[in-house]
Amino acid sequence: MESSGQPQFGDWLNQLAKDAVAGVVGKGTRDFEKYVAGTLSSDVSIEKHRRQFKLEAGSVYRKNSFLRQGPRAVPVIGVQRPIVAKIASNREELRAAFELVARNYQAAGYEGSMSCKVRFTPYHALPDSVTFIAEHDGNVLMTMTLVPDNTLLGLPLESLFGEEVARLRRARRRLAEVISLAAHKDLDAREFRPVFLAMSRLLFQYHLAYGGDTLVITVNPRHSKFYIKTMGYQPLGPCRPYEQVQGHPAEAYLLDVELARLHAPKTYDKIFAEWVPGAALVARPIPPHLVRYLSEEASEIAKERIRRTFDLDGYFSSPRRW
Q: What CA–CA distances, in Å, run from 88 to 21, 51, 157, 178, 226?
């Protein structure tokens, strides 16, 4: 069984690495392909596909201790205090992240319910969604969530930019949307950029390592220059009123590796000059009890949408589109 399964598994792993760098040109492509293959060979994806290829767990795979301990934190470079970026993995981190989003959105007028304690939507509860945080001494200073394209809900922005998203899917883009960016008031202005870049590095590398190739976002027009100049995002859709942020204006942008390299080379170097440890790219679905707990703290509208969308007693499944 082992001898018949292992070649199939090797083919899958090699193809996954090649798919992750499809369309990437220039120096560093081969190194990245090796990185993806090496990282996934010791990470959670092995367990996910082991049964498919009928491999003996004891012969080719040993579960790593970090799968029990949670994702590894990555130090933020360029700040005075020891801030780290990581994937949120427990109740305290997730609640703190969504509380921070709620406070930011309420202050900006993006959240309609001023009484809700967290901004937690069905998109945050999807099994492939991943929330990233930057923290210091147990306090969450910044957060953002990655929502991979999926068959259950799709992407949040397609309610406003449906034609644009459909065009990207027809082009076989493997999409994920970045949502719920929020920063704590205690984050110093000089710390914002290095922390944001560290978070973006972790998020982008996670997206690529798991087979994605394109990020999309919606941005208030007053923030668009930052995303264009600093990150290399390019326009996807025009300014429109966005119901999910109480009718405030929103523009759509997209980013991939090549756009980052061409339009923001300094940021590209910071994000891709060195690859984060594989242990930092481990994420688990939010378990049903936490989905239920967080939805109870959210707005009545969000709570009702989560209740209608998911069977929390039997949990749920939402395959990625890619």
A: 26, 27, 23, 15, 25
Render pLDDT for 28-71 as a digit per residue (tens, 0 to 9): 555 665 655 555 554 444 444 443 443 333 322 333 443 456 79
pLDDT digits (tens, 9 = 90+) for 107-148: 988 887 777 899 999 999 999 999 999 999 999 999 999 999
**Which tokens belong to 221?**
């027009």
Q: 305: which 2 tokens?
A: 């949408």
Give the rounded distance of the alpha carbon of 215 from its chain centre. 9
Radius of gyration of the chain (CA): 19
The residue to which tokens 């949040």 are assigned? 156
Tell me which CATH code domain 69-309 carries.
Answer: 3.40.630.30
72-97 burial code (b ≥16 CB/10 A, e <16): bbbebeebeeebbbbbbbeeebbbbb
Do 240 and 250 contact (CB within 8 A), yes or no?
yes
CA distances from 194 to 119, 182, 188, 225 (A): 25, 15, 11, 17
CA–CA gap between residue 295 and residue 297 (Å, rounded) = 5
In DSSP notation, 4-54 reads HHHHHHHHHHHHHHHHHTTT--STTHHHHHHHHHHHHTTSHHHHHHHTTTT
Under 8 Å between Cβ of 156 and 123: yes
Structure tokens at 154: 């799709």
- Domain segments of the chain as ranges: 2-63, 69-309
Verdict on whether the full-model pTM lies above 0.70: yes
Kind of pairing between the strands at 248-256 and 175-183: unpaired
E strand or H helix at 75:
strand 74-75
Residue identified by tokens 């087979």 is 211
* Amino acid identity at 278: G
CB of 132 closer than 8 Å to CB of 144: yes
Contacts of residue 88, Cβ cutoff 8 Å, sequence gap at least 6: 94, 97, 131, 132, 133, 143
